[in-house]
Amino acid sequence: MSEKQVTHTPGPWVAMGKAVYTESDNPTREILWGGHNTRSASDEEKKANARLIASAPELLEQCKLFEKLLSTLIMEGHSGADLERDNLQAILDKVEGETA
């Protein structure tokens, strides 16, 4: 995967209730708040969504590491990793804006 300029707010992110904040440059910088522009979701669902979104930077980094591991396994001749690596690469491309 080619190196791209980061377009999202750098992590780490933290979930506090229904909101997501960044700790990267300002501890009170809000990324998302569950009370605006949301469908009719319960507070618990909004909090769960905030936790998932707050984990996004860490999940992205782990996916990149896993993609490298799968590529290594493929180069070593392990069968079955090709499709999974291709699926993961498609997801990473979508996350990084390389596909529509």
Describe this structure in words.
With 100 residues, the chain is of the alpha+beta class. The protein folds into two domains: 1-54, no CATH class; 56-100. The chain has helices at 43-54, 56-75, 81-95; strands at residues 13-16, 19-22, 29-33. A three-stranded antiparallel β-sheet has the order 1-2-3, with helices on one face. Helix 2 packs antiparallel against helix 3 (81-95). The longest helix has 20 residues, at 56-75. The protein is elongated, with a radius of gyration of 17 Å. The two termini are 17 Å apart. The mean pLDDT is 78.
Strand content: 5-15%
Please describe the biggest sheet, giving its number of strands, its sense, and whether it closes into a barrel: 3 strands, antiparallel
Terminus-to-terminus distance: 17 Å
Average pLDDT for all residues: 78
Helix and strand pattern: EEEHHH
How do the strands and helices of this protein lay out in sequence?
Blueprint: E1 13-16, E2 19-22, E3 29-33, H1 43-54, H2 56-75, H3 81-95
Antiparallel strand pairs: 1-2, 2-3
Helix pairs in contact: 2-3
